[in-house]
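Example record used in the benchmark description.
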Amino acid sequence: MKKQILVAGGAGYIGSHTAVELQNSGFEVIVADNLSNSKIEVLDGIEAITGIRPIFEKIDLSKEDETAEFFKKYPNLSAIIHFAANKAVGESVAKPLMYYRNNLNSLMNILEAMKEHNIPNLVFSSSCTIYGQPDKLPVTESTPRKEAESPYGNTKSISEDIIRDTVKAHPNLKGIALRYFNPIGAHPSSKIGELPLGVPNNLIPFLTQTVAGIRPELSVFGNDYNTPDGSCIRDYINVVDLAKAHVIAIERLLQDKNDSNYEYFNVGTGEGVSVLEIIEGFERATGEKVPHKIVERRPGDVEQIYADTSFANKTLGWKSESTLDDTLLSAWNWQVSILAQEEK
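Model output (C-alpha cells):
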C-alpha cells in the first residue's frame, strides 16, 4: 500500500512540482489548497506528467475547524509537507497581519492535527530570508539568524521556532525545515510552472511576462547595491531540483535517518547570481530581449545572499543539478505554453 503524503499548498508553484516528484517516487499524494494564489487546472498538469491525478481537497488550513475536519477524513497520513503560506516580500511589508495570521495559524493547526492523529513527520517550507542580510557569505546552517527584513521572512523564523519547540515537547514528532534560496524555472514538460495570479511578485514570471508582451518592462529594483554590477544577488535554484529535495527529506523521516527530531538544511546551488546577470542569462538561453529599467530599491530586499550547500549535499545526499541557462529556458518554454493554451 502506498504511503499517503499531504502536500499542503500543493496546487502552488513548488507544491505542484513536489507532488509530481512524490508520485514518481511511489507515494500517494493528497493536495490541500485554498486556491488563493493557484489554479485547480494545475492538477491537470500533474496528471499529464505522472499519469496520476492527486487527491484534492479545497481547504483553508489557517482555519481550525476546516483543518480538523480534513484530518478526520484522512487519518492515515504518513507525513506532511507544508507549503501553504503567503510568500510575497513586498506584500508582507504592506499587509503584515495577513501574513502572520495565515502563515502561523496554518502551521499551528497542522501541528495540532499531527499530535491528535499521531502523524509523526513534517517537512516545512522555510526560507533563506531567516538569515536577513548575513555578515558573511555564503551562508551555512550555522550562520546566525537575523532580524528578518520583512514580515514574510519573520513568519518563517517564527515557524521554525514553533516546529523546534513542538517536536521538543512531543518526541514522537519529527520535523525537517528546508531553507530555500530562490526557486525558478518550470518542469521540462512545460505542463506545470510558476503561475501567479495577477501581477507577479517574483522576478522570473515578471520577466517572462515582459518578454511575452504582457508587461511593458521589467523593473530592476536598484543598481547601487554593494555588488559587482549594483543589482541584488540571489541563489537561483531549479524548482525540480528543489522538489526532489523534499522527496529525499520525506524518505529521511520515514526511514528514521534523521539525527535529531528537528533538522534544517540550506537548499540552493551555492552560486550567487545578480538580477542583471539573470537578464543576460535569459537573453543568452532564449535569444529573446528583456525590456527593463532601473528603479528605486524595494523595501524588504536583502542586498545579497547565497548558500553553502555542503551540509545538504553530504547529509541528505542531494544536490542541485540543472544549469542556470536550462532553468531559464524552461521558464520561457512554460510562458510560451501558457500563451498557446490561452489562444486555443
